Amino acid sequence: MQSVRLEKVTLNIGAGEPGERLENAKVLLEKITGKKAILTKAKDRNPTFKIRKGDNIGSKVTLRGEIASEILKKSLDVRENILMDSNFDKFGNVSFGVKEYIDFPGMKYDPKIGMMGFDVSVTLTKPGKRISLRRVMRKKLPIRQRVSPTEAKKFMIEKFGVKVEVPVVE
After folding, report:
1. Quick one: fold of 5-165?
2. Contact 147, 141 (CB under 8 A)
3. For residues 26 and 48, what is the distance between their CA atoms, to the nearest angstrom?
4. How distant, in Å, are the alpha carbons of 7, 42, 82 from that of 63?
């Protein structure tokens, strides 16, 4: 019950505005994963960027199972299997960015899409998380069943061969 496992991998591109760039982001995510991408909406209004609440401003794909681990391995290869200590949050999740999609294995430059990067978010869990999500008899998840940052780092090192670096402050 204490083993950490990969729940899902989410690929995300924030275009910031509706239009052609957003459609290109959606097409790019569908090309990378082979799955259908969905559009994400703005939660708040931001007059500085001319964004209204409910505007489509991004695109994302959520992957689970074998395809999730395959895409994660390819994404880590782009980063040369190096993650920073700051890529891990206090809940044991991991997030990092891929600067250009042409670095991703098997992808070629498409002039219609242009240059674009994407974010990769990895959600890790332990068995028993369902008690905090279920509808009937919902309970608070005990601390021992939550994934700590050290457990997440250990999992990523053992399963994917990642090297975790601590940034040097001068």
Report:
1. 50s Ribosomal Protein L5; Chain: A, (3.30.1440)
2. no
3. 25
4. 9, 22, 22
Cβ pair 32, 92 in contact under 8 A: no
Phi, psi angle pair for 122, to nearest 5°: -110, 125
Q: Are strands 38-41 and 82-84 parallel, antiparallel or unpaired?
A: unpaired
Check residue 17 and report its DSSP letter. Answer: S
3-state secondary structure of 105: coil
Q: Measure the CA–CA gap between 24 and 14, rounded to whole angstroms.
A: 11
Domain spans, the chain: 5-165
- What sections of the chain are H helices per DSSP? 20-33, 66-78, 149-160
Task: Please determine, for residue 53, whether its predicted confidence score (pLDDT) is greater than 80.
Answer: yes
Q: How many CB atoms neighbour CB 30 within 10 A?
A: 14
Q: Which of helix, strand or coil describes residue 123?
A: strand
Whole-model pTM? 0.84
In degrees, rounded to 5, the angle at the alpha carbon of residue 60 between the alpha carbons of residues 58 and 61 is 165
Helices and strands of the chain, counted as H and E runs: 3, 7
Mean pLDDT in residue range 14-31: 86
Q: Please state, in angstroms and rounded to a whole number, the distance separating the CA atoms of residues 145 and 32.
A: 33
